[in-house]
Amino acid sequence: MSDAAVELNNVSVSYGANRALRDVSAQFRTGAVGLLGPNGAGKSTMLKALLGFLKPDQGRMEVLGLDVAREALAIRARLGYMPETDAHIPGMNAVSFVAYCGQLAGLPGADAMQRAHEVLYYVGLGEARYRNVETYSTGMKQRIKLAQALVHDPDLLFLDEPTNGMDPKGRDEMLELIRDLAHNKNVNLILSSHLLPDVEYTCDHVVVMDKGTVVAHGPIRDLKGPGGRVYELRVKGDELGFVEVLRGAGMECHATDEDVMRVFVPDGQDQRALFALAARHGVQVRHLRPSVPTLEDVFAKAIGEG
Amino acid sequence: MPIHDQSYRRYGGRREALGRAWTVIAWSGIRSMIGKRKFLALLIFAWIPFIVRAVQIYIAANFPQASMLAPTTSTFREFIDQQGVFVFFVTIYVGAGLIANDRRANALQIYLSKPLMRAEYIAGKLAVLVAFLLLVTWVPGIMLLVLQVAFAGSFAFLRANLFLFPALTLAALIQVLLSAFTMLALSSLSNSSRYVAILYAGAVFFTEAMFGALVAITGSTAVSWVSFSANVAQLVDVVFRLKPRYETPWTVSMLVVVALIALSVSVLERRVRGVEVVT
Known about the structure:
The complex is a heterodimer of chains A (306) and B (279). Chain A folds into two domains: 4-219, P-loop containing nucleotide triphosphate hydrolases (Rossmann fold, 3-Layer(aba) Sandwich); 225-302, Alpha-Beta Plaits (2-Layer Sandwich). Chain A contains eleven helices and 14 strands. Chain A has helices spanning 43-51, 72-77, 94-104, 109-122, 138-150, 168-183, 196-202, 220-224, 239-248, 271-281, 295-302; strands at 4-15, 18-29, 32-36, 58-63, 66-67, 79-82, 156-160, 188-193, 205-210, 213-219, 229-236, 252-255, 261-265, 284-291. In chain A, the strands form three sheets. In chain A, strands 6-7-8-3-9-10 form a six-stranded mixed β-sheet, with helices on both faces. Chain A is elongated and about 75 Å long. Chain B has 279 residues and is mainly α. Chain B has one domain. Helix content of chain B is 71%, strand content 0%. Chain B contains 13 helices and no strands. The model of chain B has no long low-confidence stretch (mean pLDDT 93). The interface between A and B is large, with 53 and 42 residues.
């Protein structure tokens, strides 16, 4: 059996003249996989196509070994989807809403109600489960969306920007839940986000998208850990010219906040090479600190940010 | 270890076969409406004509001097006609928010991410409205027929008018299906149930007013096909084996009703989607 929970082969999806996915081929392994990309990269479109909401112009998609075009219902029975936008069934309290979602997913009424109570406790809404969902705060609405996606115990979860609009504490708790699901409860999940730390914290693998195409994919550890070292560097002088010099010497540079750049020094070289180039180019090194590669570096490299 | 670690477990129980989700939607909608006091009051009010007719049938069956009150086929036809006003109010009260409220709360993507087809979602919502509309048309109509037999103590009337059972059923279905489909289609067009209610009432009154104006201008009722309710009335007359009240051929009225239902289905097919694509 394939190790892929989701597989796309040459998939294109258009909204009228706008091509949201362009000939995408990708594999999402079992476990926790991050779907990373800037806003408008096509992440949500990919999830919606996998759910069968959007019909691709071309290509073939498989989820849990089932063909999306022919077995959409069987797929959705084994899938949990947490949408990006605020979504609920109007006029229901939390426990009724989640139990209702369980029944829609095929659980008998009594089991659905029992599971609803369980998952509401699990996502931290146990005390608020008899409140009408419409009175919930943004953070609580995110949690209830997770609860409705979990109630029927799916084999695969699609989480679309699950920490959107949450305060820092709520966000940490949500990430902890997602991490727990993936690593302790053996629920496969695809986490779509533009927030790199969220993906880095919860996922083992990542698929990076930009402008409707997959630009990088693989285990986060492998993507983050190419040969060589990473330094944070700040210089005084002709900064732009120096960046070109560094690139000419085979070193990649990514701008970060303020005036600090991250420089990737290839294998066989170290900080002395940086000092030598700086001296030759006539710039002063004001700050140099060894660093570790982050997913942000992978992302910046993949989408070509200089 | 966080406490929540103890509260999530994998589910190993039974799962229902696919294709039953519409019943879940329907039952949930029906329960939700029954929980509303104003709606219950409307339902009780809608049964008042039934009580009046039941008393009429009782008196006619038990007091020979009141034989002029004895029911005929027209009695049942008139009853269905009278219930039209309740069909209108129940359609608005129950139907306006059926899909509009789901659109407002982005619930469609929740529904359609579950193992159910769009047709099942529509069937579930339709079932809610149809159930209540039948409750104010077909159910009291059939009960009147049963009461007639019970009060008269004989099957003579029923035997002589056996067609009344299918006629009541067909008449109620024409009235109910047209109202339910058109209201559901309108409900899928907006996020506001109030707007939908106004739109539906506007459509009914406008077509009725247009028909009235055209009759006044042309002096003929051959244009009754422009009116929502006139088409229903025309068909129900035919179903009850009575002379159609307007000059429009009943086949034209039937075509209009079928076309309206087909148009509603087409609107629903386009509007009920997991994702709204704006191009």
